[in-house]
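User: Hey, my collaborator sent me this sequence without any context and asked if I could get a structure. I don't really work with proteins. Can you help?
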Amino acid sequence: MPRAKLRTLTEQMFYTLLCLREECCGIDILDRVPAMTGGEVTVGSGTLYTLLDQFLAEGCIRETRVEGRRRSYILTPAGRELLEREYRRIRRQAEDYRRVFGEEEAK
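Assistant: No problem. I've predicted the 3D structure and written it out in structure-token form, which is a compact way to encode the shape of the chain:
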């Protein structure tokens, strides 16, 4: 069953939006995601530019600057709301895990 569009976020989606709390361009995001996650999450350039187009179309980000081929983006209030919703969903999952396995096993 396919995931509803932007109902839940992949790791790549989540971290891309998280990077856009501050204005940055695609190459910045490609560098920041692995740095932010200790190399646990990476985003390929094809995936990134597909996500940026999708986020633009959904109003989650807006383009702030164009310099040649380099485009910069920033999170919109709708994007921030999407990130908040995903954060709350992830927290509920962690709480469910703790409830099932107990606090000791969660460590």
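In plain terms: The CA atoms of residues 21 and 75 lie 6 Å apart. You can pass these tokens on to your collaborator as they are.
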